[in-house]
Specification:
The complex is a heterodimer of chains A (951) and B (261). Chain A has 951 residues and is mostly beta strands. Chain A has a 26-stranded antiparallel beta barrel. In chain A, strands 4-3-6-7-10-11-17-18-15-16 form a ten-stranded mixed sheet. In chain A, strand 35 (611-631) and strand 36 form a beta hairpin. Chain B has a twelve-stranded mixed sheet with strand order 7-8-9-10-11-1-2-3-4-5-6-12.
């Protein structure tokens, strides 16, 4: 009927249309499942400022609608239909617009979702623009549940044992609290410490890159992000969690978190004391700091960087299924965020402290494959390390006006590291004839200071896409280390032996000053094409000294410097980098092509040998990106990256490093420039209602003039390493997986398939050969969920390994390894919960690995919740009940096969109490528990749709 | 190891039985174009009395307490609405109006008939106010509805909450469903993208909620415009009531609110 009105109105208007330009919105509503138009959906334009309904209509038989007339202004567009999930988005009608056509609106069927969750009202899952929003109270969780438990019951979200979150089949990189980054990058701080009842909404979206947000040009680079929107009355109040736990043999885990939120002000304090490997906060900012061996190396851009040996991996529970060593940690931090003057000034600051003591013990057997000369190495090492780290990060954003923003970023760290390593290495032939051996004791004490400052001024111009941004960076990095090396090296040769006694003091000092000025400008060439140009000037100065001191006489102090083992460099790199990139942006797809070119002038003074080097370098870094979006939850991406690889100074002119006297490095001044490239193709799709996700991808990389190590075996049993150019290597990786719910059951099945093929040329004793290796991993799995009753999951991971080296073609390592695992959680007697999980690993014996490896790890716990709000939980659990846990891994590379055993935390039990609390207005909500009522105080009318988060 | 195996076997044995437990079905009505809705109107007489007394200076609260004992807390009336995609008729159900044995209590215009014609954008309403009968003819009222994100289930329909203020003084909460195509509602409330199944007016202690929605094909006779009464438009009604009820003094505004809805 309304359509009829519309029609009359339209036909009346038609005759006047030339006179007055009428403003409005037209569009089409589609059903994503059946790709059909949605007929009779209600479409409403709601004024954003006061939520007043301005105009509404229904879609016609074609799914089309026309909303008019509309005054210029901001509107919320609400599309609803009883069979579909509500769609909400923000729309602006401009003075200059006529009838503005908008993108097709895709609705998701509600019926399927209803089967999976008990929906209390139709707003429990909603799509707002490109954000999928869950109303937390509509989903049933146990009283006293944490956010992690809530995420587990949200359709489309999975949380694994390690606390890693997958949403719509993609890994979640960030968890924000009320739009704020919370204690850096570790999502588990938020998910495991915030009670689910304080959360009003869980919003899932793809966070666009800062650059895309700034220029308004989608570059397809997105991070899956979850924002936990807290309940309104959480603006005033405190909430938190205290956990105390202990067991025998010095096992404890205590943890506390207190949050105090007031309006825009967030203040949180967090602390962990543990001796079971749980360090809590994501301590190291892995993106900005990597410990890579030591000495000078080249970064991926072909620039140079220096690192100091750092056995860091403070939190090795990530990535590894079994934490290595025994760790005791005392960590804590403060998070503060606030906004002033309507959000124009915004501060997010985090301070954290950590003391992490770790004992690591390992021994390994390595089979070294040299043409005509195979020998074995046995290596044992015990390390004790203690790290004390202070870290302060802050980001201050000042929106000077609507088009200008100034951002200051601080990332600073002060670390004190003590470590001691005892190490012994034995090289022997298979006939048990000793070749060489070494026993060493290495201790070091170091202080690391790092202060990174970055100031960016972003300015947008009136023309959409035209932006300029100026940035300055100053990084100060100082590392001082002092250490002792003592040991005995023995070389056996033709029956006679030679012994070398080491007693040295090592002093290392390094100071890096890095200054960078960057100017970038983007200009829209057309509405769809954006040109980005940039120029950067960098000064990178480094003072790097390393002295090896010995005692002139036994009773003396360490005063005599050994020049061959000492170095003192003063290096400077001045570089100019120019870049250009063209981005093409269509509704469904976008691509970018560009390159950066860098010219570097390198100057180095060798103060020990009174030498200096000067040279200059050209490097290029081309990139291609393509991104196609089939729908919001389905896309394909392609990336190409290339980079020239200049040989580093260490590869051409190395400084002797005798920390392992059996490995000698020799320079090669005639190294040629190399080129590496990588192709990457990815596809992923997720279906909301069936919960089916598919992902698959392939990556191929190869290199020209690759810089590789030529290892030669010298008569003294030492290995001489020299870098040479080598062609023909490539590596291909594929991955894929599918996960789907079985209709009408509570079962979910998945299948993951991964494979890798590597063709690696190598050179040993000046003889070239290749290693071909591949592996395939197949992991079928099944999950069964009966809400509030039982959760079961099982996976059977099977690995097929095959490696052939032409150097030793009789050594074809081929085996099938098994790794089944399962877990179960059962709820019973109202307040009890019990859980258990098993993980079995089997690797068959295959030469050169003589023993089969069997390990069966079984963990279990029982917990009981008490008090009114179920906010006190008692938990008793035992880890590794059968005490079978031992660290083990196998590494097969070009010319050696290593089997390594390492110490891990074995069987222990722990009894703990977890208390969660809240005060202020939250306390009143206790009675309400996890029920489905909508929180009070929500009368503010419809909030703005779309993504409105402060970053 | 063997104990573990037993646990696994046990778990596997339990699983199929758990599988059999079915989840409740959640039926959603399809889009409706025509039918019949039964509304229940509830007036809280006790509260109304309190308000009235307050308006009178609050002197007679002891008397009010005495009176309250003699009347039930609620006056409940039943209305029905027939609708198709172009028009609707809202009227009292046969024997739908209950009696209140008390002066001043209740609703002065308690048995309104409202006929909405959406093709023309007009309504016709028959109102009996005390001894007078009016026939109000005017264009559909332009409500300024504020849309919220709250929902409530009424008569099996998921209804979204909307709010407005009428006569500059009375706050109205409406619950509407877009699963019914006709943009109508009880009394002369309309203008939302669907059927209003619930109205709450706290200041008038008055609620309307649909109790039943039937799929029914209304005949020509079911949806006819009322014809009885003195023809007036809305404005004329208000000025007429104001002039004829001057003597009501403090009560005038309250009575007007009831009369104008």
């Amino acid at each position: 009927m309304h359509r009829l009105l519309c029609f009359i109105f339209l036909s009346l208007l038609g005759s006047f249309s030339a006179v007055a330009q009428e403003k409005g919105i037209s569009g089409k509503v589609k059903d994503t499942l059946n790709v059909k138009p949605v007929v009779f959906a209600s479409v409403s334009a709601i004024r954003k400022s006061d939520s007043i309904l301005v105009r509404h209509t229904r879609t016609n038989q074609q799914g089309s609608f026309m909303l008019k007339p509309l005054q210029p202004g901001q509107y919320i567009l609400l599309v609803s239909h009883s069979s579909f999930v509500d769609y909400v988005d923000e729309i602006e009608v401009k003075e200059t617009d006529g009838i503005k056509p908008i993108d097709d609106i895709n609705l998701y069927q509600r019926g399927q979702l209803l089967k999976e969750v008990v929906i209390k009202n139709s707003a429990s899952i909603k799509i707002k623009g490109d954000t999928l929003e869950y109303l937390a109270d509509s989903f049933k969780v146990k009283e006293g549940a944490m956010v992690e438990d809530l995420l587990k019951v949200l359709p489309g979200i999975q949380v694994n044992k390690k606390g890693e979150i997958t949403a719509m089949g993609e890994k979640v990189e960030k968890v924000l609290v009320d739009g704020e980054e919370f204690f850096g990058d570790d999502p588990t701080v938020a998910t495991q410490n915030i009670q689910s009842k304080v959360v009003e909404k869980v919003q899932v979206f793809d966070k666009k890159s800062d650059q895309a947000q700034f220029t308004g040009f989608d570059d397809g680079q997105e991070q899956k992000t979850i924002n936990l929107k807290l309940k309104d009355n959480m603006n005033r109040g405190e909430f938190g969690k205290v956990e105390l736990g202990g067991g025998w043999e010095d096992r404890w885990q205590n943890q506390a978190m207190l949050n105090s939120f007031k309006n825009k002000r967030q203040l949180s304090i967090y602390g962990v004391m543990s001796s079971n490997g749980k360090t809590g906060l994501g301590w190291e900012d892995r993106n900005t700091y990597t410990g890579e061996g030591g000495g000078m190396s080249m970064d991926e851009d072909g620039g140079f960087m220096w690192t100091v040996t750092d056995d860091g991996d403070d939190d090795n529970s990530r990535g590894f299924s079994i934490p290595e060593g025994i760790t005791k940690a005392w960590t804590g931090g403060v998070h503060f965020a606030n906004k002033w003057k309507d959000g124009d000034h915004h501060l997010n600051a985090n301070y954290s402290f950590g003391r992490i003591n770790r004992i690591r013990k390992q021994n390994s057997n390595t089979e070294n494959l040299f043409p005509g000369n195979t020998y074995q190495t046995q290596d044992t090492s015990n390390t004790y390390s203690s790290r004390n780290t202070h870290r302060l990060t802050a980001k201050y954003t000042w929106n000077i006006d609507s088009s200008t923003t100034l951002i200051y970023n601080l990332n600073s760290r002060l670390g004190f590291i003590e470590s001691e390593t005892e190490n012994s290495t034995n090289n022997r032939t298979y006939e048990e004839v000793p070749i060489s051996s070494s026993v060493r004791d290495n201790s070091s004490n170091s202080t690391q200071t790092r202060v990174n400052n970055n100031l960016v001024l972003n300015k947008k111009f009136k023309k959409v896409g035209r932006t300029i941004s100026v940035s300055g960076t100053y990084n100060y990095n100082k590392n001082d280390a002092e250490g002792m090396l003592s040991g005995v090296n023995t070389y056996g040769f033709n029956g006679s032996t030679m012994t070398e006694i080491l007693d040295q003091k090592k002093v290392q000092n390094q100071l890096i000053n890095y200054i960078n000025a960057d100017l970038s400008y983007t200009e829209p060439l057309t509405k769809k094409i954006l040109l980005k140009t940039s120029y950067a000037y960098t000064i990178d100065n480094s003072l790097s000294g390393k002295s090896t001191l010995v005692k002139p006489q036994a009773e003396n102090d360490y005063t005599q410097q050994i020049d061959t083992l000492s170095s003192d460099f003063n290096s400077s790199i001045y570089s100019h980098t120019v870049g250009a990139e063209i981005k093409y942006n269509e509704k469904k797809y976008n691509f970018a092509i560009g390159s950066r070119v860098r010219y570097s002038l390198f100057h180095q003074d060798d103060l020990v040998r009174n030498l200096n080097y000067d040279y200059n370098r050209w490097n290029a870094f081309p990139t291609v990106r393509f991104n196609y979006k089939f729908s919001q939850f389905s896309r394909v991406t392609f990336n190409y990256n290339g980079s020239t690889r200049q040989p580093s100074i260490t590869q051409m002119q190395p400084v002797q490093d005798n920390s392992n006297p059996l490995e000698i490095y020799v320079g090669n001044p005639s190294l040629k420039i190399g080129y590496n490239q990588n192709f990457n193709l990815n596809y992923f799709s997720y279906k909301v209602f069936t919960g089916r996700s598919i992902y698959t991808g392939i990556s191929f990389s190869n290199s020209f003039n690759n810089i590789a190590l030529n290892r030669t075996f010298d008569p003294l049993g030492r290995t001489i390493n020299q870098y040479v150019n080598l062609n023909g290597g490539y590596n291909a990786t594929m991955w894929g997986g599918i996960r789907t719910k079985i209709p009408k059951t509570d079962l979910e099945v998945k299948l993951d398939l991964n494979g890798n093929y590597g063709h690696t040329p190598n050179i040993i004793n000046n003889q070239t050969g290749t290693t071909n290796s591949y592996f395939v991993t197949l992991s079928p799995g099944i999950n069964y969920t009966k809400e509030d009753l039982i959760y079961l999951s099982a996976e059977l991971k099977t690995i097929y390994n095959n490696a052939v080296s032409t150097i030793q073609s009789n050594r074809n390592i081929r085996y099938i390894g098994l790794n089944p695992n399962a877990s179960a959680t059962v709820y019973f007697l109202k307040n009890f919960e019990a859980g258990t999980d098993i993980d079995y690993q089997y690797n068959p014996p295959v030469a050169p690995y003589n023993t089969s490896f069997n390990r069966f790890i079984w963990n279990g716990y029982v917990s009981y919740k008490m008090l009114k709000g179920r906010n006190l939980t008692w938990r008793a659990g035992m880890n590794d009940i059968l005490n079978q846990n031992r660290g083990y891994d196998r590494t097969t590379t070009n010319n050696f096969n290593t089997e390594r055993f390492f110490m891990t935390l074995g069987r222990y039990w722990m009894v703990s109490a977890v208390w969660t609390f809240s005060s202020g207005p939250m306390a009143a909500q206790h009675q309400q528990g996890g029920g489905g009522m909508r929180p009070k105080g929500m009368r503010g009318g419809m909030r703005g749709g779309g993504r409105r988060m402060s970053h | 190891m063997s104990s573990l195996r037993h646990i696994l076997i046990l778990l596997l044995a339990i699983a199929p039985q758990l599988l059999l437990a079915q989840k409740e079905k959640n039926e959603i009505p399809p889009v409706t174009f025509k039918g019949k809705i039964t509304f229940e109107r509830k007036l809280n007489l006790h509260k109304q009395m309190d308000e009235m007394m307050k308006g009178n200076g609050g002197a007679n609260s002891a008397m009010a307490d005495q009176l309250k004992k003699n009347i039930s807390k609620y006056k409940t009336d039943i209305f029905e609405m027939y609708f198709n995609d172009t028009k609707s008729l809202y009227k009292p159900a046969p024997d739908g109006i209950s009696e209140v044995k008390m002066m001043m209590a209740g609703i002065p215009s308690e048995k309104n008939l409202v006929y909405n014609d959406f093709t023309q954008g007009v309504y016709t309403s028959e109102k009996s106010i005390f001894e007078k009968t009016y026939l109000i003819q005017d264009s559909l009222k332009p409500f300024q509805w504020k849309i919220t994100e709250e929902f409530r289930k009424i008569a099996g329909f998921n209804c979204r909450r909307a709010e407005t203020v009428i006569m500059d003084s009375v706050y109205v909460v409406a619950f509407y469903t877009d699963a019914i195509m006709t943009n109508s509602g009880p009394e002369n409330f309309s203008g939302l993208p669907g059927m209003i199944l619930g109205i709450v007016m706290p200041r008038l202690n008055l609620t309307y909620f649909a109790t039943k929605v039937e799929n029914y094909l209304p005949g020509e006779k079911d949806i006819v415009s009322p014809t009885k009464g003195v023809k007036k438009d809305q404005k004329e009604l208000e000025s007429d009531l104001r002039s004829s009820m001057k003597q009501w003094g403090a009560f005038l505004e309250r009575i007007l609110w009831y009369c104008m809805i």
